[in-house]
Design brief:
The protein has about 170 residues and is mainly beta. It is about 0% helix and about 30% strand.
Length: about 170
Amino acid sequence: WKTVLVGGLNWGGRAFYALDITDPTTLASAETGTNPSDIAMWEFTDANDSDLGYTHVQPTYPPFQGISQQIRKMYNGKWAAILGNGYNSTSGKAALFILFVDHSGGTWTDGTDYIKLVADTGPDNGLSTPMPYDIDGDGVVDMIYAGDLKGNLWQFDVTHSNPANWK
């Protein structure tokens, strides 16, 4: 089990990152001499997928029933960060990103390390902060809802064990 922090750069950039904050003693690197790379897990940028825009994700605290709204267990058995693609991407699409938290760094492969579900092909669109929903209370996400810049509300069905069938 790990405690993972996932954050974005807002207008500062087109990237998400994950930090392993399980052991709080590793966080005070200036005091302990710990290398920041000891807690860095991965980074996902627009270089990995050009549909990623400026990463405006609203924090969802306090967590619902002790579970983060953005990091949730999926039907394929993996934990994932569920994120909108943000604003002003190169393509102008509205897309949902499901980034698997256990990614070991390096190259990101769509369909393996992350899933991208395009809601609208643009132009001039982007997906806001998504809200995962567990319909049956089993701790696994069933549906994900998110709005786009054009005023649409999107529903994503992620109830299949094979991510290729998520829509």
